[in-house]
Amino acid sequence: IKGLIDQDDLSVQSILAELKNEDFDFERDYLTCAKKAFHFVQNQIKYVKPEIDLNYWLSPKELLQVKVGDDKDISIFLCTFLAAIGDQNAEVIVAEMDNGFTHAFLTTEFKETFYILDPVQKHDFDYFSGTKSSALEKYSFQGTKIVRFIYRFNKQKYEQFI
Predict the structure, then answer these.
(1) 1 — pLDDT class (breaks 50, 70, 90)
(2) Which pick of 23, 89, 155, 157 has the fewest CB atoms within 10 Å?
(3) Is 147 left (phi over 0), alpha (psi -120 to 50) or beta?
């Protein structure tokens, strides 16, 4: 599952070439570039909730071709962008919500600010941000709150909680 975060994917790299400065510096330009990537994913990929639970994830190229995906596909796609610009903290979280369903989103931390990024929702990049506890408390998806994390991963790690 960690291999799904492929920051060397040519589709991702070609889009990033347009989103980031030529003289990109992580400390200086990360937030600007991450916001552009977040809004690109929000605006270009439509969220669809699958009727059945499939364990098949779309590659970045496939996602860009069909322009639709479920919450896991879209979160993995955004995580790939963030990894490609050097964010080692970004990870996909799959959580159980209080309605019994699962939902995927991203978390990251930059300069002591914790961010929850849910590209399937229409919110600003920093809407769910602040301290980790305040961001988690504020976060909701379609009126539901997080009950617990099921698993989280990025290119370097995978952690399961149940």
Answers:
(1) confident
(2) 23
(3) alpha
